[in-house]
Structure formats: C-alpha cells, structure tokens
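lol ok so funny story. i was supposed to be doing the assay writeup but got distracted and ended up predicting the structure for this chain instead. priorities right. anyway since i did it might as well share w the group, maybe its usefull for someone
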Amino acid sequence: HGVMVDVWWGLVERNPRDYDFSAYYTLAQKARDHGLKMQCVISFHRCGGNVGDTCNYTLPRWVFNQQHLGIFYKDKHGHEDSEYLSLGVDHKPFWNGRSAVRMYEDFMAAFASTMREFIPSTIDEVQIGMGPAGELRYPSYQLDRWHFPGVGEFQCYDRWMLDSLRKHAQETGHYAWTGPPSDAGDYNSFPYQTDFFRNGYKTEYGKYFLEWYSDKLIQHGSDVLDAAKRAFRGFDIEVAAKVAGIHWWFLSESHAAELTAGYYNTREHQGYMKIAEMYAQKDVIFDFTCFEMRDNEQPGWAKCGPYEMVGQTLWTAKTVGVAYAAENALPRYDQTAYDTMKDNANRTIRIKALTYLRLNPELTDNWDNWNRFTQFVSDMRNM
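and the output, tada:
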C-alpha cells in the first residue's frame, strides 16, 4: 500500500515559523511516481534514545531557549527529560507568544499547505505525535535510566505539573493531597518492592492521584488532536494517534508500568476506554503497538501480557466504535510474528491498517526474510 515516514519537528523548523519540508516534498513525489501511499507521522519528539532509533534529532534548538522556565517533564530526582515538551506548557505562551500546542498547530498547518498537492492522493494519513516515541504517554521509562522490566517513574515534578496537582487538590477539597506518591519506588523497581504498587494505588489517595495523572494526559491528547483537526480542516485525510503497548506487569494486579506511563489501567480499572472514547469523538484512528508479541516470548516472572493487552484494546475499540490500526513493536522477520499479527488482525474486529516495522537491509537483503514478508503482505491483503 505504501510507506510510513516521520516528519521531524527538529529537522523542519530550525528557526521559529521557518519551515523546510523540501525533503518530504521530494519523497512524496517519488512515492507518487511509484504508486505508493504515505503515512506521515508528525513527530514532535526527539529521535534518539528509544528502541530502534538509529539517528539523533533533537527538538528545535530555539525551543531550548526557554528551558529555564521548566518546559520538560521532570522526575522526583530533578532529572528533566528533553525528549518531548511537558504537557504543563501546552498553553503557556513562552515562545514569543506561542504555546506548545500553538507551535504544533502552526507546524501541522504549514505541512498541510506545503504538501496539499499530495493530499489525499499520495499522503492519505497523518499520525499525530503526542509524547515520547510519538505515543500518547509520559516518558516514564527513559532508556538511559531504566531497564526492563522496571515499573518506571511518575513524570509530574516540573513546576507546572506540580502547580496543577496543587490546584486540583484545592478545587476538590483534598488539601493534603498536593503531591505525587512518595512510595512508588524508582525506575527499576518491581511492583512488589513498592508500597504504592502493592496497596497504595487502591487507596482513595491512590485513585485520586492516578485519575488526575491520566486525565491530564488525555486532555493533552485532546488539545493536540483539536489542533490537528484545525490544521487539516478542509483536507480529505485520515488522522491517527498512537497508544503505547506497555506489556510488562500487565498480568499483575496493579499494572504498575502502565500507571507511571499515564494509563490508569489496573485489574479493577479500565484504562483505555477514556482514550478510545476521546479518539472516537474526534474521528481519530486508535493506533496500537506490540501486535506481533506472544506471552510465551516474554519472561514469565515479569508478568508480561502483550497478547492480552492487544485483546483488551481491540475489545475497547469495538465497544467504543473507533477505528483500530496496529504495528509491531520490534523488528521481526520470523513466521511466528507474522502469524500472530494475522491472528490479531481479525481477532475481535477487523483492523483498519497495519504498519510494519521496519524497512531495512535485514529485510530487503535477506532472501528468506523477504520471501516471508512478501507472503505476509499477500496474506494480509487477501483477508
């Protein structure tokens, strides 16, 4: 059908409101000449430091001029993560009167205007990045501080997030609940090693905090998607947004790694319904990952449940009535991965699309890998 490409904010807008989409324009011309479609991922995050990253592109350098104002997510140790702007500055006019959301909207509008001759004949979908790795989540498991299968850390210690939590406590009458939990361990803790993920998350305070933390993320997603809808108004193009497949500890009671990432999903609380409902309300495709994974491929002691997690999100999409797209989390070229993706594609609902990662020499230059891939593509098209 076509190819996916990241449209990097840090490469295109090297100076404020000065956009250079020329490389993408050339790529779109080549895709059109070969009869291919393009899925453009509008990437407002940094490339480098995540699984599969083979290059390093920061956010635009001029964005860092306001770093002293607390524009990045911060953990309890005071470490700032510069992969993506904190949602706390979504509506702060720190960049010559522009807020983060306004900068995102300006960028998307410039892309739409520049690439209009290819929409939708060649560019038929944009996926809107809304967090680290382009996913709607907090940077809870930064690879320079975290290793699998740690629970990660809550990312709400920048001044704007803490201020929001304090105001929320005052508005709801919970005057003593002005801060994040102090007993949630660190990046590499296991759930049973922390008081919060053993019991605290089930207390009234735990529920209060997790609701606030996840609702802030969902509101961020809503605001960015509203900006995308304004930017692409009048264009016949599909809009999608990705949710991360954080499968470790999914089979435990607390689902700790999902909680620190912003997904209030536990054995007792459905965490993806609100996201799916928000996507459905805005006519946005729900894109999910780890579509190729099976439980028996993961360490059992880490309570991994990628197959069950995919099942939960498929059921959620069916219940809400939102279109569902998928992708594999890691590069895989084996028949088991292909069979798992084919099984998932019609498991609960028929998915709208699947993006396969990744086009590289290991796929194209290996005869066996290429043959398995082409057969997989044929099987998916004939479903």
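Strands lie at 2-8, 37-43, 72-74, 80-85, 123-128, 238-243, 285-288, 324-327, 353-355. The mean pLDDT is 96.
back to the writeup now i swear
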